Amino acid sequence: MSLLKRIENPLDVKKLTPDQLPALCQEVRDFIIPVLSKVGGHLASNLGVVELTVALHYLLNTPKDKIIWDTSNQTYTHKLLTGRRERFHTLRQFGGLSGFCKREESVYDTFNAGHAGTGVSAAVGFVEARRHLAEDYKVVCVVGDGALTAGMTLEGLQHAGDLKQDLLVVLNDNQMSISRNVGAISAYLNRTFTGEFYTRLREETSQLLETIPQIGEPMKRMALRAEELAKGLLLPGLLFEELGFRYVGPIDGHNFDHLLPTLENTLKLKGPTLLHVITKKGLGYEPAMRDPVWFHACSPFDLATGRPLKKSTTPSYSEVAVQTLIDLARQDKRIVALTAAMCEGTGLSAFEKVFPDRLYDVGIAEQHAVTFAAGLAAQGLRPVVCMYSTFLQRAYDQVVHDVATQNLPVTFCIDRGGLVAEDGTTHHGAFDLAYLRHVPNMVIMAPKDENELRRMVKTCLQHDGPAAVRYPRGRGIGVTIDEAAPPVPIGSGELLVEGSDIALVALGVTVPPAVEAAARLAEEGIAATVVNARFVKPLDKVLLRRVAGHVKCLLTIEEGCRMGGFGSAVLEWLSDEGLWNLPVRCLGLPDRYIEQGPQELLREKYGLTATGIFEEAKLLYERVSMQAVLRG
Q1: Cβ(147)–Cβ(117) under 8 Å?
Q2: Max Cα separation, the chain?
Q3: Contact 544/503 with Cβ under 8 angstroms?
Q4: Residue 498 Cα distances to 231, 443, 519, 530, 544, angstroms
């Protein structure tokens, strides 16, 4: 029987001998890779953290002891060791296991996290809760090296260092090469520095020096300074020591001879400690090691070659947006592009190839990216911030305070607007329309297809103020792109179909299904008007006034939250116009967090397909007609 099949919970991991752990890790990799070849997911980072995950569960007493995974997209091994092996094939599928930690899924998932940079702050909260409640358990936070660029991580480290409570932060560094100081000498030094004898000697020496009158305290400071100097020469951790942490590392995160004793020792240390572990992304699968960027969050792939299974000649919305930026940047030297650790995901790697000195990837630092863009714009450049919808919300204050209040010409290309499928709750771009539209000076638009997206990017860059264009994840619908098409006039909607019974006022990706729904309504004898709203702000009031005066009821449609979104904007306008007697329904995402699942399945569930729009529109029209009959 294989080792992995024996593991039903972490207690079973503890039954193994240290010599068996490498074989368990190999079985874990052999289990993960075939599943992800079918369902996709975060492969490279998960392959790199197998040994570390096994070591943590081997030494800790989970779930009493708490492991907090920053981002938590590297927890596939954690899931396998905590009773979810039989359901692992449902990973990231509708109704299946989450691709991240989820407290609702397992008692071993201590804290939900889909965005990097939250782990240390949450861990500090756990540490202080432990103190207040007089409980006894260990708190370990695993944080990736990329998250160190997040200001929130540094804020959490500073606070933890100030509180001086027991906390172990494991820095999973998968970007550095394993240099010579990760070998046997470094392992020996770290076992020595974290061992009980050294720790006790250090504390007793400090106490002894404190008892010597007059010279004791200066000698203690000199000893500490000498220790810092030695560590600065031998170990690259002085920054963390200055933040109040004891630094240990770097050590080889794939070598149990180094990992287990050092981790065991650090778990015994008092106060905040940072263990620096070097891992290799994609370890155990050659294609993932060659291309860890693509395998960071990959789609299904051929197991033998590592190549993606799906190929399409239709460009994605991201590719269309970036190609437009490239074309415009050739004409305007003021255009620069910015992103926050999402160069590949947003498609900006293509921009970087053409304009390497005009692309800024600031790391996981969305707040800095937006204010940095504001500074560029204040001095005459035309910065374009390309960011996922769900990540831009992290920089909300900077959008309001640093960009909009000064009416600066910063363009926001908001990728992954709406439903994003398998990454689920933390990654759906459900809130952008709502959290941006009430910001003064902000212009917000969404295209019905890739050709309109190109025109809208032009609109943004010609506008002397903040402007946002929001587009979905995935491929376009396959329309022909007119590269010479002019910008879309700000605040102009588009009348696509005219009818006198009901108006379907749709935004963005909901426009094509609204047109299809109108055709089905016509077959039922219901004449529908279809409006491509284009703009959330400003609304095309002239067109809306014309439409509202010629129909019996109106349905707004958006792939975003109903509360405060596009439909709310239309309702506010109708109220201002005194059109209180026009029956209106708003179709969009409900006031809840949306689960993971394929885009089309979720659209069907929430009524955003042609069928869903048709049924909602027909029901609204029939109710209005019945009320008219009853009144008559």
Answers
A1: yes
A2: 101
A3: no
A4: 75, 27, 11, 7, 13
Question: What pLDDT is attached to residue 196?
Answer: 65
Tell me the DSSP string of 93-118: STTS--SS--TTT-TT--S---STT-
Amino acid letter, residue 305: T
CB atoms within 10 A of CB 566: 31
Q: Look at the pTM and tell me if it is higher than 0.85.
A: yes
Per CATH, is 494-631 categorized as 3.40.50.920? yes
Predicted pLDDT at 147? 83
Residue 108 near residue 62, CB atoms below 8 Å: yes
394 DSSP 8-state letter:
G
Question: Which candidate in 66, 102, 231, 281 is catalytic?
Answer: 281
CA atoms of 187 and 181, how far apart (whole Å): 8
Scanning the structure block, which residue is given the tokens 């009320």? Answer: 627
CA distance 53 to 211: 44
- pLDDT computed for residue 76 by the predictor: 95
Whether 295 has a pLDDT exceeding 70, the answer reads: yes
Q: Where are the alpha helices (DSSP H) in 106-195?
A: 119-132, 151-163, 184-194
Q: Tell the residue number behind the tokens 């970087």, with chain if given.
A: 352
pLDDT digits (tens, 9 = 90+) for 104-130: 999 999 999 888 889 999 999 999 999
Provide the angle, in degrees to the nearest 10, between the axes of the packed helices 184-194 and 256-266: 20
From the candidates 79, 394, 416, 562, give the one annotated as an active-site residue: 394
Residue 394 catalytic?
yes
Rounded Cα gap, residues 52 and 322, in angstroms: 38
User: Which H, E and C letters describe 461-515, residue by residue?
Assistant: HHCCCCEEEECCCCECCCCCCCCCCCCCCCCCCEEEECCCCEEEEECHHHHHHHH
User: Which SS3 state, helix, strand or coil, does residue 441 take?
Assistant: coil
Residue spans of the domains in the chain: they are 3-287, 317-470, 494-631
* Same-fold call for 3-287 versus 494-631: yes
- pLDDT digits 0-9 by tens, 216-265: 666 666 666 565 555 554 556 777 888 899 999 889 999 999 999 999 99
Cβ atoms 298, 40 nearer than 8 A: yes
**Nearest CA-CA partner of 166 in 270, 96, 66, 257:** 270
CATH architecture of 3-287: 3-Layer(aba) Sandwich (3.40)
DSSP state letter for 181: G
Lookup: tokens for 64 = 């009493």
Instruction: Render pLDDT for 380-424 as a digit per residue (tens, 0 to 9).
Output: 999 999 999 999 999 999 999 999 999 999 999 999 999 998 888
The single residue of 51, 352, 366, 559 carrying the catalytic annotation is: 366
Question: Please, are residues 499 and 515 in contact by the beta-carbon 8 Å criterion?
Answer: no
**Has 416 been annotated as catalytic?**
no
What pLDDT is attached to residue 216? 66
Residue the block writes with tokens 């491509």: 532
Determine whether domain 317-470 maps to CATH 3.40.50.970.
yes
The yes-or-no answer on residue 204 being catalytic is no
- Residues of 182-200 as b/e, b for ≥16 C-beta within 10 angstroms? beeebbebbbebbeeeebe
